[in-house]
Write a structure and sequence with these properties.
Bound molecules: flavin-adenine dinucleotide
Length: 401
């Protein structure tokens, strides 16, 4: 009788556990080992979603779902046809982890604790007799005729196939590069913007729900809440812009111009509305009541920027109304740096996707080697999409290895 096939999953994070468990699920006869460099398993899962683990997003159409991936959308279209958000929910529920949806579509375990996800994985690993080796990092892979020798910090392992799920590890990317893979230059994604500007100074905490943010060339546009912070701007629309513009902003050393539409409405319509206000409220002072859904303090600040303070509406010129409409709908800011969003850093870049089969996750360059998770050049906006990519690619790698 032949010995069982031996699979080594490199990396004990979200993608590693999902690959290993699904591998055993589909191939109960295989020997599956998770090799983790540190002494800790699933450390990002533990802190994810503020300790609640935002496991996926309530988006159930592939074409809608892929819009949340600045890098990897095309690649994932095929992957999601095999394992979607609905499959994630079912997968966890089948194992006793109930998932709930929040108003904004983010989905969490009902327990509101990432430990529930960790416990689920650890139980599966135990039940399926998956071996875990801690404190030993992968260094190099040596191909023999029909098996691999995996060299680690402490020893070497003979195995039939390998699933690489090492997340954003520069050392592993370097090793894979030497083995023939192309690595798309890793740069940060998902960050907030540093902006030093009188218009937003002293106004932290003020937010609008329906903002539109664009790059100066208008090539990238995102929508959603925008939040004024102590150091600049944040909120979902800003984070999305940071993700879709990650490579461009990196090239510019995080110095670039953005345009914010605070009202999410076309400038022409706002200008028309301002003209109407001038006629209807002729005798009123412009900066005593905010006529839009923005707080009075911020309205006053925009009035100052447009040069129209303490004036009666009737005395405002057409030019001044245009200035005001511009402040409301095309408010220009110079970004001069970035900050991490709640420590939720994500790196874009990684293994070039045209070198990986998106039905099986097998490397086209190194047959017998599979990839899942953040090691690939896939990343998403916030909301549970990054984990969804880890589950989907992990499922496919585990199934097809
Ligand atoms: C603070 C924070 C909060 C987040 N919250 C969310 C959220 O709520 N929802 C969401 O969708 N996404 C979230 N993300 C993103 C998400 O955590 C990642 O996309 C996901 O963890 C990627 O999983 P992975 O398994 O590919 O990589 P990782 O989780 O990074 O795991 C890689 C593992 O490989 C190990 N490793 C590295 N090199 C080696 C080596 N040479 N040998 C052996 N092992 C090695 C590492 O130690 C690590 O354990 C968050 C990220 C952060 C930082």
């Amino acid at each position: 009788m032949n010995p069982p096939k031996k699979i080594i999953v490199i990396g004990g994070g979200a993608a590693g556990f999902f690959s290993a468990i699904n591998c055993k699920n589909f191939h109960p006869g295989y020997e599956v080992i998770i090799l983790e460099k540190t002494q800790h398993l699933l450390s990002k899962v533990k802190v994810s979603g503020g300790g609640r683990c935002n496991v996926t997003h309530a988006c159930f159409e592939i074409e809608e779902l892929i819009k949340n991936y600045p890098r990897g959308a095309e690649f994932l279209r095929e992957c999601f046809s095999h394992f979607m958000t609905t499959d994630t929910i079912k997968w966890f529920e089948k194992r006793g982890v109930k998932i709930k949806k929040e108003e904004d579509g983010r989905m969490f375990p009902v327990s509101n604790s990432s430990q529930t996800i960790i416990d689920c994985f650890l139980e599966e690993v135990k039940k399926r007799d998956i071996k875990i080796i801690l404190g030993d990092g992968f260094i190099k892979l040596e191909r023999k005729e029909n098996y691999f020798i995996l060299h680690s910090q402490k020893t070497s392992y003979k195995c039939d196939k390998v699933i690489v799920t090492t997340g954003s590890s520069p050392q592993v990317w370097e090793t894979l590069k030497k083995a023939g893979h192309t690595i798309v230059n890793p740069v940060p994604s998902l960050f907030t913007f540093h902006i030093d500007d009188e218009r937003i100074k002293g106004l932290p905490g003020i937010s609008v729900n329906y903002g539109i943010v664009k790059t100066a060339d208008k090539k990238i546009e995102t929508r959603g809440p925008v939040l004024i912070t102590h150091w600049g701007l944040s909120g979902p629309a800003i984070l999305k812009l940071s993700a879709f513009g990650a490579e461009e902003f990196h090239k510019r050393n995080y110095h670039f111009t953005i345009l914010v539409n605070w009202l999410g409405t076309d400038k022409k319509i706002i200008l028309e509305h301002l003209r109407k206000l001038r006629d209807e409220q002729a005798k009123k002072i412009i900066d005593t009541i905010s006529p839009f859904e923005i707080p009075l303090r911020f309205w006053k600040s925009l009035c100052v920027a447009a040069g129209v303070t303490d004036f009666k509406w009737a005395s405002i010129s057409n030019k001044q109304l245009e200035n005001l409409a511009a402040q409301l709908c095309e408010c220009e800011f110079q970004v001069t740096g970035k900050s991490t969003f709640k420590e939720e850093f994500v790196t874009c870049g990684g293994i070039a996707l045209d070198e990986v089969n998106n039905e099986t996750m097998e490397s086209n360059t190194l047959p017998g080697v599979y990839f899942a998770g953040e090691v690939l050049n896939i990343d998403a906006v916030t909301g549970g999409f990054n984990f969804q990519a880890a589950w989907t690619t992990g499922f496919l790698a585990g199934k097809n290895v």
